[in-house]
Design a protein that fits this description.
The structure is a single chain. By secondary structure, this protein is mainly α. Helix content is 36%, strand content 0%. It has 1 helix and no strands. This is Ribosome biogenesis GTPase Der.
Length: 47
């Protein structure tokens, strides 16, 4: 494929295959959970 970009020539390689993170859920740390809970409280209050 060709992109009309000026500057240094670059090569982009498209890879195919399974996503290794497809079924992994991001587990939040206790600090992140606390912050999320606090932010959700503010969002609910403003509605």
């Amino acid at each position: 494929k060709s992109l009309d970009v000026m500057g240094s020539p670059i090569r982009i390689q498209f890879k195919e295959g399974e996503n290794p993170y497809a079924n992994k859920r991001n587990t939040l740390t206790p600090t992140q959970m606390r912050k999320r809970k606090r932010l959700m409280k503010h969002i609910k209050k403003s509605k």
